[in-house]
Amino acid sequence: MASTSLSAAQSSLRRYLPLIITLDNAKSGLFYYVVIIYVIKAHRHLRARGITASARELYTWISQHVIRLILRVPSTRQKVAAQMDKAKLDIENRLVPKGENVKRHLTLPSEGKNLEWIIQEMDTMDTELGGSGDSWKQGKLSGAVYHGGDELTKIIVAAYSRYCVSNPLHPEVFPAIRKMEAEIVAMCLKMYHGPSGSGGTMTSGGTESIIMALKTYRDWARSVKGIKEPEIIVSTTAHAAFDKGAAYLGLKIHTIAIDPYTRQVNVKHVKRAINPNTILLVGSCVNFPDGNQDDIEALALLAKKNKIGLHVDCCLGSFIVPFLEAAGLSKGNSNGRYRLTPFDFTVDGVTSISCDTHKYGFAPKGTSVIMYRTTELRRFQYYVNPSWSGGVYASPSLSGSRPGALIAGCWAVMQHMGTEGYLSSCREIVTAARTIADAITDDIPELYVLGDPPASVVAFGSKHPNVDPLEVGDGMSRRGWHLNGLSQPKSVHIACTRLTLPLVDQFIADLKDSVREAKVAPSGKGSMVAVYGLGNSSAVGPEMVGQLASTFLDALYKA
Ligand SMILES: *Cc1c(COP(=O)(O)O)cnc(C)c1O
């Protein structure tokens, strides 16, 4: 009896022991697996960012958490809330008209109004809001309005009104719109030397083009390479649309430092950041902050070697960079400055390019083109739902219904400008930018030009200890200029457009005056100094600027 139960126990032990051991192994195996995964992730992160940058990141992360904790203490919370309320009032006072006699339209009129009434109401708004309807015509802008000529406006309006109700979601109903969109993409592919088999789509703007590209690579990498935790590598000068897209789509983004002199992404650091989860490298031609281009050829070699994508952001370069060579400007000046190196599909390894027709293409706002080296790659951009109760649903980009009228406007502008028109625009605008850059380099010893911008943007920083470039920017604001303040380093830029052409001498004179003023009597009160000074001055800065920015967005919707 005893021996039978013993043998039964033995046999059951024999049966279950392996299981118990495996379970134990599995547990520790799982433990080691998790540890290894984290070690790999940490190692990749460290490789990508470097030890100092990772330490700085950790420090920033900790200090921001500490700050958030401090901000929760009731007394500080009240102080911050009071400051924020004040800032909110400030912002609203600047944006939103106040007073009893401002007519507000907060509910639908019970009876519809006629055209005459509508135009009159718009006139009233324009005058009441400080004649803002056409203040841009003074031309003291950075970017924003790229052409603005009356003749071109007439052409856009004519095309728009003709196709006002059209929607490319229904190509059988609006066949002309379908044809025009395909032709716009084809013309852009030609400009950027798309090989046979390349393709693209239109989108609503540079941001959508970039977000669609990110989605394309994410789905491509998942399907072709089985990557489930995709990562992309950009530079600090890449447009914020990449961060926005990565945030929307759940991609990990590595932001790589640039060379402070050339302002190009440090390719060695990009190489170090590549790991098996990397799906995409990004280069700009030209970048938004300082108008320099990345070394696209070097990035392309890396992308090819690792069998990943390379997106070239030509949203700003748009209809300038493809014409620089023909304009005789791609080789730079006699000092070897402002040279343009290859950036388009002629560079093997470039797999997609975004180009904003609504910037230097002079098309109406709300148009951009995203191009791919192969139509197979473009497939990953599409969204298709064959089993929707509303019918088979297929759309090429983010929007469902789209404004066909904008496509018509874009097509009309491209036909009107032609190669000759864009070529002379490129020549004039780039010459204006280089005249400004040369004047800063040669005649304003307190300032320097960031890098060697080959196209239309010029950014300046300060090399004089008593001249704050943001203070210079505020001086320019007092002289009627709307320029952009930048960080890393503190600097200011102008994106020259057709509106800048008659104002080049004025710009240089105003800049000299602003430098003199900034040196002798800095006010320290302008908005550039306030915003960017705050953002960079302390650990609290980014948190506060973030809150302020959201307050600003709230104010936009105050009726
Ligand atoms: C303007 C710009 C974008 C984004 O374009 P939007 O049309 O404003 O969405 C992207 N990249 C660069 C370099 C740009 O200048």
From TrEMBL:
It is found in: Endoplasmic reticulum membrane. It comes from the Eukaryota. Pathway: Lipid metabolism; sphingolipid metabolism; Sphingolipid metabolism. Its EC number is 4.1.2.27. It is a single-pass membrane protein. Keywords: Endoplasmic reticulum, Lipid metabolism, Lyase, Membrane, Pyridoxal phosphate, Sphingolipid metabolism, Transmembrane, Transmembrane helix. Pfam families: Pyridoxal_deC. Its cofactor is pyridoxal 5'-phosphate. The modification N6-(pyridoxal phosphate)lysine is found at residue 359. One of its GO terms (cellular component) is endoplasmic reticulum membrane. GO terms for molecular function: pyridoxal phosphate binding; sphinganine-1-phosphate aldolase activity. Its main location: endoplasmic reticulum. InterPro entries: GrpII_AminoAcid_Decarb, PyrdxlP-dep_de-COase, PyrdxlP-dep_Trfase, PyrdxlP-dep_Trfase_major, PyrdxlP-dep_Trfase_small. One of its GO terms (biological process) is carboxylic acid metabolic process. Belongs to the group II decarboxylase family. Sphingosine-1-phosphate lyase subfamily. This is sphinganine-1-phosphate aldolase. It comes from Hebeloma cylindrosporum.
